[in-house]
Amino acid sequence: MAGSPAAAVVAAALLLLLSLSACASSSAAISSSSSYPPLAPGLSLDFYKKSCPKAESIVRDFLQSAVSQNVGLAAALIRLHFHDCFVQGCDASILLDKTPAQQSEQEAVPNQTLRPAAFKAINDIRDRLDRACGARVVSCADILTLAARDSVALAGGPAYKVPLGRRDGLAPASQDAVFAALPPPSSNVTTLLSFLSKINLDAADLVALSGGHTVGIAHCGSFDDRLFPTQDPTLNQWFAGRLRLTCPVQGADNTTVNDIRTPNTFDNKYYVDLLNRQGLFTSDQDLFTDGRTKPLVTKFAVDQDAFFEQFIYSYVKMGQINVLTGASQGQIRANCSARNAGRSDDELPWSVVENVVDAAESLVL
Ligand code: HEM
After folding, report:
1. What's this protein's family per the entry (predicted)?
2. Which residues pair with 54 in a beta bridge?
3. Given the DSSP bridges, would you call strands 255-257 and 217-219 parallel, antiparallel or unpaired?
């Protein structure tokens, strides 16, 4: 067979296999399709089975109607969940309004474009859950997780189970902590990976989670550094022209869609955009430039099921970052926008509880 055409074909196939496996080992590896991230201690898939059995259907019914009236709400909730989890963990601290004593996370620049409608939706769901199951049963952090999960499915993405049992944080993160945790859209892959590594997320998580940009909008200020003063050479020329119509000067207050192909549908077209150099942010487009992430971008562009599988894995993983669980951590807020007024049993340090019990016992004759 040596020297024959058949031998040449076998040799070429072997070479291709070898180069593919070398490529796979040096770049982002997809998580096993059957895998689901390990559950964080204290979380479970049926956490409210007894205390609020209708919790998931209440969230779902509310959003089904709300998203049908405002499709942008789905994108807004998906982003809100991300901005909560990356900063100080998924503790609903992003929902806390400012007080005379404390700045809120919402005031930090990266959070100023979060949509008020998303915050309102969480409080509306909170009211419905309180009426069905009593006050302070379902945490705001879990409501946000469920709302983001349902938003993905309602926009056309995959439906999946999420672990529940998070408790709500007692205080917002500082402005510095917000900046340290949320990468700017001008980041390249090296910068993005260094942000993500701090919270145990890897290159596959980065590529899949960035797929959240398959829905929603962005303001000119988030990407016009790619147009002015000089145009980013990686931008597709036609696409750049279109962006210039939306943002004629630097600092314009207009918005455009994140995914030009199917802006309101949760699908894999975001990756097709990247292949065509039509990614909106540097942080998007560099995923197709950098050799560590390019193979996965290419895979997701041609295989939506592969994207959905990795997205579920990575988004559930993201939803478990530094969660507060168990009676001793955090609290269940009565109002998602404010820490519970006064002190309540679920946040009292044990030493204080013991002192109160001791004092009460001394009163018994
Ligand atoms: C990897 C780093 C990321 C960067 C640098 C980034 C940056 C941004 C920026 C700058 C905007 C537009 C803000 C504006 O101008 O209004 C945006 C929007 C959005 N992002 Fe990201 N993002 C990242 C990751 C994620 C992740 C992990 C998700 C969720 C899985 C996500 C989901 C969204 C959504 C849905 C929108 C649209 C929100 C709306 O329409 O209200 N992003 N992102």
Report:
1. Belongs to the peroxidase family. Classical plant (class III) peroxidase subfamily.
2. none
3. antiparallel
| Ligand 1 pocket, mutate which of 73, 81, 82 (most atoms under 8 A from CB) | 82
What is the SS3 assignment for 237-274? Answer: HHHHHHHHHHCCCCCCCCEEECCCCCCCCCCCHHHHHH
Q: What percentage of residues in the chain have a pLDDT greater than 70? A: 86
Question: What rounded mean pLDDT belongs to the chain?
Answer: 89
Residue identifier of the C-alpha nearest atom 18 of ligand 1: 218
Q: Consult the annotation and say whether 202 binds a ligand.
A: no
Left if phi > 0, otherwise alpha if psi is -120 to 50, otherwise beta: which for 39? beta
Sort residue 161 into left (φ over 0), alpha (ψ -120 to 50) or beta: beta
Average pLDDT over residues 130-151: 98
pLDDT, average across residues 161-186: 98
Q: What is the pLDDT of residue 276?
A: 98
Ligand 1 atom 34: residue of nearest CA: 79
CA angle 329, 311, 119 (to 5 degrees): 50
Residue 188 CA to ligand 1 center (angstroms) comes to 15
N-to-C CA span, the chain: 103
* Confidence at 360, pLDDT banded by 50, 70, 90: very low
